[in-house]
Amino acid sequence: MSIAYFDHAAATPVRPEVLEEMLPYFRERFGNPSAVYDLGSGIKEVLEEQRAKVARLLGARPQEIIFTSSGAEANNLAVKGAALAHLKKGRHVIVSGIEHHSVLNAARYLEKFHDFEATFLPVDRFGQVDPERLRQALTPATVLVSIQVASNEIGTIQNIPALAAVCREAGVLFHTDAVAAAGQIPLNVEELGVDLLTLSGPALGGPKGVGALYFRKRLRLVPQIHGGIQEDGRRGGTENVPGIVGLGKAAELAATELADKGPYLASLRDRLVEGVLKAVPEVIYTGHPKRRLPGHASFCFEGVEGEALVFLLSRQGVYANTGSACASKALKVSPVLCAIGLSPAVAQGSLVFTLERSNTAADLEAVFTHLPPAVARLRSFSPVWHKKMAAGGAGP
Amino acid sequence: MYSPVVMEHFNNPRNAGVMEDPDGVGEVGNPACGDMMTFFIKVKDDRIVDIKFQTFGCVAAIAVSSMVSEMAKGKTLDEAARITNKDVAEVLGGLPKNKLHCSNLGADALARAIADYRRKHGTAH
After folding, report:
1. Residue B34 phi/psi, 5° resolution?
2. ipTM
3. Is residue A334 less than 8 Å (CB to CB) from chain B?
């Protein structure tokens, strides 16, 4: 059975070029970058080369990049590390209500253990944060605002330059989680106007277990992993050299491919959306219809539950994701889907497609072949669907 | 994450669909909580001669509905009413811990359908 894989935001294969670069650093070039003899010092230079590659992707300086173990760790270091380094100014942080859990829970941690106040900004029905609303939420005690570039659940791209400008005017630090956006749209820290930005390795076609944080030069951060003076004392622990080499290569490839990749993904995505909306009745296309990641399509199918739909599709070799409560370990419906105003019942029917360069027109055909009957089948014995139809809902 | 029996019932659910003129109907859950299950039964000589279910829910919820319908079909009302959540989870080869509530829904919906029949037909114990 051929495979049509549309869950690249969850995991994507390491690119062969990336793996190739990484391999020597497991055995031949195993030295510790902190070692003073030559086996180690060569490695230190390799790390600095990777820093430069990641910096180039973001229009930043190499010394403004910290390597971490994941996007989640970079988000923690940004939110907690920057907030705790600026306690003198105050104890208030603002994040959007649709951030990744690593940002939401870092803000809650500051509330619970450091007497901070955290504001969770609402979004409109497309998932957008209003810059005016952000301005009104700022207080003299606000030290940090964190709003993602784009959501991996609904694809909506925020107006980061406008949001960051509000913060800059007020002298408040601005962090953005760019994990979902990196490699899909251009990201330049000067144009965005951000002080901190999070990246993750796997989202760029690099390996799992590595991420990076951009921080504006001289910005103070309290380390969240205490240890030696790796990463200039901002993050302890021996560096994950193979992982960092992989991230560096992935960032280098992303920078050169971005111009072609975005339009390719967008054209594929548009055909996917058009085909799905045409083939299945009573579907909601979630997120912003235009201001969204090129490789992202997300839907809610009324009357069905997402986990069941994902399983039915996977049986046919079509792989997608869902924000359904039943698919989450905590059995809680996605806060993102609630924040854009969907009822919990409708949010249960969430299905998310994240595309990559490896996706083809044949993959789309697989979706068009297998998705409509899968939805119809689950609806055929769904009491929610039958009630909706009995109440005069549209469609067959 | 799911047992082969769960997957088999999810892939080929028994007795899924609507029933015309059921003798008893039992409904549990609500879509806001994520799951909703309805059981319809036809009863003859105190025995469940036909059964159908409708389920809005995950793989586990659908497999549970299918299994409960199969366990109840042909049983007397008393026998069917004794089917417990634990029985259902057990014959399914177990359920992930966070999905055990789905097995509760199945047995509860069946019990309500039986209670509904008895209420309508004046045979409540």
Report:
1. 110, -30
2. 0.93
3. no
